[in-house]
Design a protein that fits this description.
The chain is mainly beta. It has one domain: 2,3-Dihydroxybiphenyl 1,2-Dioxygenase, domain 1 (Roll). 14% of the residues lie in helices and 49% in strands. The protein is built from 2 helices and 8 strands. It has helices at 15-23, 83-92, and strands spanning 4-11, 28-35, 40-46, 53-59, 72-80, 96-104, 109-115, 118-127. Strands 2-3-4-1-5-8-7-6 form an 8-stranded mixed β-sheet. Strand 6 (96-104) and strand 7 (109-115) form a beta hairpin. The protein is globular. The two termini are 20 Å apart.
Length: 133
């Protein structure tokens, strides 16, 4: 398997309203989950023929790590074959700013990173060994 776009995450102020509007243009809601550990409710939307997911992130707790971030594009998730190898390679160089360690995400192991000099863009590496929703 080659690396590919896994998901695009968008912070929204009203998850229900946005997900219902996207359903009107052909996306379907795979699931909506409450993630208390990060103070968010997350909707996972997709198209029937595509495996790429759109994640809608709604803050539901003032302690959420994204509470002060603006609404709109939050990050792009990249599915990788060997998350440990990618993480170790990034950690050794000075091109990337890693945002924490590899950890368990909503459906798979993940870590976040930015590219030095382009810190306004957030990316997430997602392990290919995931739990399908």
């Amino acid at each position: 398997m080659k690396n590919k776009i896994d998901h695009i995450a968008i912070k929204v102020s009203d998850l229900t309203e946005v997900s219902q509007a996207l359903e009107q243009v052909g996306l379907f809601c795979k699931s909506i989950e409450q993630h208390d550990e990060v103070g968010m409710k997350i909707a996972f939307l997709g198209l029937s023929e595509e495996k790429t997911t759109i994640e809608l992130l709604e803050v539901v707790d003032p302690s959420s790590p994204i509470v002060n971030e603006p609404t709109g594009l939050h990050h792009v998730g990249i599915r990788v074959e060997n998350i440990e190898k990618i993480y170790d390679k990034m950690k050794k160089g000075d091109r990337y700013k890693l945002e924490g360690e590899i950890r368990q995400g909503a459906h798979s192991r993940i870590f976040f990173f930015r590219i030095n000099g382009h810190e306004e863009i957030l990316f997430e590496c997602v392990s290919e060994q995931s739990i399908k929703c």
